[in-house]
Structures are given as structure tokens and as C-alpha cells.
Design brief:
Keywords: Acetylation, Cytoplasm, Glycosyltransferase, Phosphoprotein, Purine salvage, Transferase
GO molecular function: adenine binding; adenine phosphoribosyltransferase activity; AMP binding
Helix content: 25-40%
Radius of gyration: 16 Å
Organism: Rhinopithecus roxellana (Golden snub-nosed monkey)
CATH architecture: 3-Layer(aba) Sandwich
Subcellular location: Cytoplasm
Distance between the termini: 22 Å
Number of strands: 9
Strand order of the largest sheet: 5-6-4-3-7-8-9
Number of domains: 1
Largest sheet: 7 strands, mixed
Main location: cytoplasm
Number of helices: 6
Length: about 180
Amino acid sequence: MADPELQLVERRIRSFPDFPTPGVLFRDISPVLKDPASFRAAIGLLARHLKATHGGRIDYIAGLDSRGFLFGPSLAQELGLGCVLIRKRGKLPGPTVWASYALEYGKAELEIQKDALEPGQRVVVVDDLLATGGTMHAACELLGRLQAEVLECVSLVELTSLKGREKLAPVPFFSLLQYE
């Protein structure tokens, strides 16, 4: 029997064909955010996975710009941890480190403040969705430059046909819901 909390979250994911371009089936998480019970369930399920997998070994949650910001702080709060931000380049004050990554239509850049973490601190990266893995891979690269240890990457939704999980290897990856 499937987990009722997971079923609640899954019922809130909407699909929009041909958005943002023809041939793409967009998975919309907005209804999860709109419904307090499903959002609470999503955070609880991710937190339970992280507790079971890593126990008390996690130092911080890293939320990715922009929808990872919706899950990162709540997940960190649930686990009694702090949250650090990994943003699009040019959005953070002070000294930063940055990394470029490829998009299907060009490139993008992410950055993190140089003093966001101390060497050796253990981090879990969170975003709303894993597609090709470019954004999470760049985030892992940035955290590595700060000499942090990335324990795992997690997301609410994974688009398995795009093989983003493979791009993250050897960093473990977990998603609540998987779609082709």
C-alpha cells in the first residue's frame, strides 16, 4: 500500500502539456504550495528520508534558486538546521564563488557566498525538480569549492527520462515522485 502522505503530494502535482514549448509536459508544484497539508507532507517525507539516511550528520540544507528556496528553509527548520542559499549569479552581496552550467538554450551561472560554509561541513542540496541535473551539478561543484561535503541531493519531483540523476553521480540523489 502506498504512503497516504505521498499520495496526497502526488495528487497536487499538475501537468501542463506543451509548456513552455511544444512537446514538453510541465510538472507544476504550485498546488503543493497552495495546500498546507500537502506541503507539510512533502517536507515531512523529505525530512524522514534524510533522518533515516544521514541521522544527525547533516550540518546545513542548501536551497537552490529559485524554487529550492521554497523547500530548503522549511526542510531545514523541520530538521533543526540552518539553510544556505545558492543563487543565480549577481544576486548575493559580498565575496562569492560561482560556477557556469549548460542549459538547453544557453548557459547560466550560480553563486554562493564564500563564507556560507566552513570546510568539512556536511550539506544536503534541495530543489523542487530534477531534470537534466545541470543546476544541482553546478551547486555540488560550488559546495566542493568551499570544501563542504555534499551528502545528498533531494527534490520533490524527478523527470527520469532526462537522466539528471546520472549527472550527479557519485553524489546520491532522492526524489519523492518520479515521472518519465
